[in-house]
């Protein structure tokens, strides 16, 4: 178990929690393989839609953590902060509605933008261990979504 000192006290991040954070990205590896390797356009399209859906879930769940912290009184619940959390969920929903390569691109921007917001607007309120884990998970998520977008293009998917 690793510990990080923060102004809110000592915050433990267990190995299990850290692994669960990384395992959340695993379905995107399967979607990447599906878009690139599955036979037939319909199967590739299904893998692409699964990637968009899972990317939206990851974005909304990252935002939900902040919503929960604000409700519990652990984060100041300013209107701009609540708007940022709601915007992340709306970006995920928009990506699902738009679909295809545009939906994947929207998710890349959404994940990157939410991490930027989290780092710069909330960096003093969140433990460093959380920010480090989120940075790595966000980087992996953005890279995988971008790769799925490029492979989708090569496979002839919209």
Could you describe the 3D structure shown?
The protein has one domain (15-155). The chain contains 6 helices and 2 strands; from the N terminus they run ββαααααα. The chain has helices at 15-23, 26-37, 41-71, 79-98, 100-121, 128-155; strands at 2-6, 9-13. It has a two-stranded antiparallel ribbon with strand order 1-2. A hairpin with a 2-residue loop joins strand 1 (2-6) and strand 2 (9-13). It starts with a strand and ends with a helix.
Helix count? 6
- Strand adjacency order, main sheet: 1-2
Please give the domain count. 1
Order of helices and strands: EEHHHHHH
Content-based structural category: mainly alpha
Question: Overall pLDDT, averaged?
Answer: 87
Between the first and last Cα atoms, what is the distance in angstroms? Answer: 44 Å
Strand count, sense and barrel status of the largest sheet are:
2 strands, antiparallel
Radius of gyration (CA) equals 17 Å
Residue fraction in strands: 5-15%
Helix coverage percent of residues?
over 70%
Which stretches are poorly predicted, pLDDT < 50 over at least 5 residues?
1-9
What overall form do the CA principal axes indicate?
A: elongated
Using DSSP, what is the number of strands? 2
Topology:
Elements: E1 2-6, E2 9-13, H1 15-23, H2 26-37, H3 41-71, H4 79-98, H5 100-121, H6 128-155
Antiparallel strand pairs: 1-2
Q: Short summary of the structure?
A:
The protein is mainly alpha-helical. It contains six helices and two strands.
């Amino acid at each position: 178990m690793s510990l990080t000192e923060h102004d809110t006290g000592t915050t433990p991040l267990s190995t299990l929690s850290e692994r669960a954070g990384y395992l959340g990205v695993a379905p995107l590896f399967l979607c990447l393989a599906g878009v690139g390797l599955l036979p037939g356009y319909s199967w590739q399209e299904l893998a692409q839609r699964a990637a968009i859906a899972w990317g939206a879930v990851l974005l909304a769940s990252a935002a939900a953590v902040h919503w929960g912290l604000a409700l519990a009184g652990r984060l100041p619940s300013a209107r701009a902060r609540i708007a940022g959390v709601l915007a992340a969920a709306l970006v995920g929903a928009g990506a699902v509605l738009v679909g295809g390569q545009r939906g994947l691109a929207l998710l890349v921007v959404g994940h990157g933008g939410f991490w930027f917001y989290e780092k710069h607007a909330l960096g003093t309120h969140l433990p460093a261990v959380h920010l480090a884990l989120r940075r790595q998970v966000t980087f992996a998520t953005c890279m995988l979504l971008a790769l799925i977008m490029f492979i989708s293009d090569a496979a002839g998917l919209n």
